[in-house]
Amino acid sequence: MTSRIVQVLLLFVAVSCVASKSFSKSDEFTHQQIMKLLSLPQKSEMIPNVFKVKIGDKAFLGAFTWSNCNSSAPLKLNSLSISPDPVKLSGDLTVAVNGTADVNVVQGLSAKLVIKKKIAGIEIEIPCESNIGSCTYNDVCSMIPSTPPADCPAPLPTYKIPCSCPVPKGNYVLPKTTFTIPPIPVPGWLASGDYSIGVKAYDKAGNNLACYNFKLALA
Asked: Are 105 and 207 in contact (CB under 8 A)?
């Protein structure tokens, strides 16, 4: 459960969808081109100097950022921080989150992710391939046990943060907490680089419950 929570906070990087997206023959050639382009290593000389922030011997777009993209959506982030930055897919990850739910989160919640990787200064959307990439979760709550185990990962019980659906409306705060993340199996082309991630969540009626934008670097 801990790794799933952190993956959601990262958005995100290693995303598992309910079903893999399929491509028609007419899409196949374009899809192969995109995947080949995404597999190229990120080289600092490919990025205009105006966008660079030097971190060690690599170049990244800058620090982790986030924003709410629908001011009327009832599920909002008030604050979010992660470290280290750039993010590593395994090892220690420190997270602090403050969020508000103005409605109860119940069964039928769906979420759509759009993940883009920056290549030579251009953002290219990562297709939903083998359940990873810009995919849709058709029922987020069904991916979480309806009855959480007694050992709900610390420190969530301490701060009364639910481990399953339904999630009652209210304000939820997770102070700065360090999790140890096991290695996440993702394709090599997804394991490093600069990303922008868009997340939108909807209820059964199609109402937009949440909208978030994130920018982060993976190393």
From this structure: no
C-alpha to C-alpha distance for 203 and 106, rounded to whole angstroms: 8
Write out the two tokens for 199.
């997340």
Q: How far apart are the first and last CA of the chain?
A: 24
Check: CB of residue 197 under 8 Å from CB of residue 12: yes
Distance CA 91, CA 24 (A): 39
Residues 42, 112: Cα–Cα separation, whole Å: 26
Report the predicted TM-score, pTM, of the whole model to 2 decimal places.
0.72
Alpha carbons 182 and 89: distance in angstroms, whole number: 8
The low-confidence residues of the chain, meaning pLDDT below 50, are 1-31, 41-61
| Burial label, 10 (beta-carbon count in 10 A; 0-12, 13-18, 19+) | buried
How far, in Å, CA of 143 to CA of 138, rounded?
A: 10
How many angstroms separate the CA atoms of 142 and 86, rounded?
A: 31
